Amino acid sequence: MTDTAVCVGTFTAVKTLWEVRIHKINEELKKEKEFRQRLLLVWEERATLAKLKEKVINEDGRAILRIEEEEWKTLPSCLLKLVHLQEWQLHRTSLQKIPQFIGRFQNLVVLDLSWNSIERVPKEIGQLTSLQELLFSYNRIKSVPEEISNCVSLERLEPSVNRNISDLPPQV
Predict the structure, then answer these.
(1) In terms of CB atoms within 10 Å, which end of the chain has fewer, N or C?
(2) Residue 75 neighbours by CB under 8 Å, 6+ apart
(3) How many Cα atoms occupy the beta-carbon half-sphere of 66 within 13 Å?
(4) What is the spatial distance between Cα 77 and Cα 87, in angstroms, rounded to a whole number?
(5) Between β-strands 62-68 and 56-59, what pairing exists: parallel, antiparallel or unpaired?
(6) Phi, psi at residue 35, to the nearest 5°?
(7) How buried is residue 113: exposed, middle or buried, by Cβ count under 10 Å (0-12/13-18/19+)?
């Protein structure tokens, strides 16, 4: 009987050891998968940034991001690496929303988002104190936030052909 008890005890110990090893291997596989996913995201971001940089031109001393007739439903956060931009010209890109990080582009003088599918203007637009032109005609915008009155340099506002636009802030 003693021999049987030793075998059962040994079997239980081996089983526990294998369960611990399998658990460790599964954890390592999970970490490796997460690392590969992060690495893939980094490479995709670099590729997207390289694609965006190809769209930057210098014209009349201005750094301009010009994208026309391409599918860009959203703008990637890697665009923040190009905060030196002074003008955005994004036409017919199917853009659906202006990113909230728009306020970080303090050098932006012209923001031309005409002919897209944008439904709202974020309040962060009010942080663009150097903005002189805001063009968003031919979109689906319903309202313009009051914060737009903080754009003290704004000389031209073009909201035409936004059929659902209800009204503009009284300050504008």
Answers:
(1) N
(2) 95, 99
(3) 7
(4) 17
(5) antiparallel
(6) -60, -45
(7) buried
pLDDT in tens, 67-80: 999 999 999 999 99
Residue 149's beta-bridge partner residues?
Answer: none
d(C-alpha 125, C-alpha 168), whole Å: 14
Distances (CA, A) of 2 to 6, 38, 48, 81, 156: 6, 54, 69, 72, 94
Which pLDDT score is estimated for 96?
Answer: 95
Dihedral-angle region of residue 61 (phi above 0 means left; psi in -120 to 50 means alpha; beta otherwise): left
What is the model's pLDDT at position 169? 73
Kindly list the distances between the CA atom of residue 40 and the CA atoms of 37, 45, 72, 77, 108, in Å, as whole numbers in the listed order: 5, 9, 20, 16, 31
If you count DSSP H runs as helices and E runs as strands, how many of each does the chain have, helices first? 1, 6
Quick one: which of 97, 91, 81 has its CA closest to 140? 97
0.85 surpassed by pTM: no
